[in-house]
Amino acid sequence: MEKQVRLAAVGDNCIDFYDRTGEAYPGGNPVNVAVYTVRMGGCASYTGVVGSDDFGELMRRAIAEKGVDVSHLRTEEGATAVTHVELDERGDRVLGDYDEGVMEHFALTEEDLDFLAGHDLVVSGLWGRVEGALPRLKERGVEIAFDFADKPLGDIAQAALPWTDYAFFSNDGEDEAALQAFLRKVVALGPKVAVVTRGEAGSLAYDGKAFYRGAIVPCHVEDTMGAGDSYIAGFLFGAMRGEDIPRCMELGAKSSAVTLGYFGAW
After folding, report:
1. Phi/psi class of residue 242: alpha, beta or left (left: φ > 0; alpha: ψ in -120 to 50)?
2. In a domain, 108, yes or no
3. Is 266 a domain residue?
4. How many domains does the chain have?
5. Cβ distance 195 to 169 under 8 Å?
6. What is the pLDDT of residues 182-213, one digit of tens each?
7. Which domain covers residue 220, as residue numbers?
8. CATH number of the domain within which 103 lies
9. pTM of the full predicted structure?
10. Is 194 helix (H, G, I), strand (E, B) or coil?
11. pLDDT tens sequence across 59-104
């Protein structure tokens, strides 16, 4: 019998608002990872804050309908975070202004930390405003994953990396030699595994001993929104079940291929 995994996503959520069409899709890096984890058969919760506006109600309802535990999703007076989105001629998303809303002042409580520590793994990212709480999560013995996106080794990374077990980055512009050197620097700062997703070039991972290359799963691309988060969810789903790194990378690529085939993150 396969292990039932339990992931805690914490940090930012936002409405992806497509300015051209007026469509609004719930999303945000940790939220997406939680939804995709449930899609693969795992259990997931989301801890964060939404505003008292209609978008906040949409976010809460949509996440819950996907089977994610929202018992620690707070509602505060104000606006829910919104990211403005356009699509280019290739279908790639182009992110515009980000209105942070009530997420600007989000902070974890002690009760939140205890709740998160009851999971197999906690995942957050650059805009989650939780990097300062990571030492207290590690004190509670929980593994931590963090998505640094395309912002390598800035202030947030310096604060988060010593407490991070699985570090994720995106970079589809540099060659493999440069990325290998980068991943060596990352792992030296604390993570046991560092991964960079490379778009059509697949992914590259390093565990301090060896490099691993992951291929993409060929698929029709409708919209790239959520593709990277899908990869992270697949990789972590495998890691929580004790899979080796190549298998985790394979699960990440398969999860990403599903998301690429439809419009919006989920």
Report:
1. left
2. yes
3. no
4. 1
5. yes
6. 999 999 999 999 999 998 899 999 999 999 99
7. 6-260
8. 3.40.1190.20
9. 0.91
10. strand
11. 999 999 999 999 999 999 999 999 988 776 665 667 788 999 999 9
